[in-house]
């Protein structure tokens, strides 16, 4: 299974985020899942990718050329695709993914999550979407989504379809996988 991970190019102030990223990387290997991600070697992105690589797993990174030029592209991946724009990056990651997962991050993570949730709502993708709510990071975003439902701007089913977990170990049963 190819799992697309959206996450920060920083690690955050709390080491629990990096710990969750390392655990996720180990679980991806354990479940023989391929990591699809933004191709960076920094932040939570780099931590997840390094953990998968160190465990002998497969990692496909998709990075826009301008970020590659800034030398943030991970050189040790199974495969690194360089594309022309951020939009091409998101489209390519979506084309490869069987499931999507958001970890803590900033604007880029929020953008990727919002776009994939919109594409799922419109039927452009049908893969599961999950949020890893480590340390309650996404609590206020989840509350905003609940307000959107309450105020009639989002169907309750669209929110119900998003898996929200606080530990990486809870993801894989939802993705239809169990360890060997």
Query: Radius of gyration, Cα only, in angstroms?
Result: 15 Å
The CATH topology is Rossmann fold
Number of strands: 7
Which percent band covers the strand fraction?
15-25%
Account of the 3D structure:
α1 runs parallel beside α2 (43-54). Helices cover 44% and strands 18% of the residues. With 180 residues, it is an alpha/beta fold. It has helices at residues 15-30, 43-54, 65-69, 86-96, 107-121, 139-150, 156-160, 171-174, and strands at 2-6, 34-37, 59-64, 79-83, 99-102, 129-132, 162-165. The protein has a 7-stranded parallel β-sheet, with helices on both faces. It is globular.
What are the main properties of this structure?
seven-stranded parallel beta sheet; 8 helices; about 180 residues; Rossmann fold; alpha/beta; globular
Quick overview of this protein structure:
The chain has 180 residues and is α/β, with parallel strands linked by helices. It is built from 8 helices and 7 strands, in the order βαβαβαβαβαβααβα.
């Amino acid at each position: 299974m190819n799992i697309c991970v959206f996450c920060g190019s920083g690690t955050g102030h709390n080491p629990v985020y990096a710990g969750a990223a390392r655990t996720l990387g180990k679980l991806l290997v354990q479940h023989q899942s391929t990591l699809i991600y933004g191709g960076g070697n920094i932040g939570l992105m780099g931590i997840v990718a390094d953990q998968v690589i160190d465990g002998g797993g497969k990692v496909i990174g998709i990075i826009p050329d301008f970020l590659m030029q800034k030398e943030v592209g991970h050189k040790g991946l199974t495969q690194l695709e360089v594309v022309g724009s951020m939009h091409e990056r998101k489209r390519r990651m979506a084309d490869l993914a069987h499931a999507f997962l958001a970890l803590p991050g900033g604007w880029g993570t929020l953008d990727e999550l919002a776009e994939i949730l919109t594409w799922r709502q419109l039927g452009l993708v049908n893969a599961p979407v999950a949020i890893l709510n480590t340390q309650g990071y996404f609590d206020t975003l989840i509350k905003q989504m609940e307000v959107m439902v309450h105020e009639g701007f989002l169907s309750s089913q669209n929110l119900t379809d998003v898996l929200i977990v606080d530990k990486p170990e809870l993801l894989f049963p939802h993705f239809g996988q169990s360890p060997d």
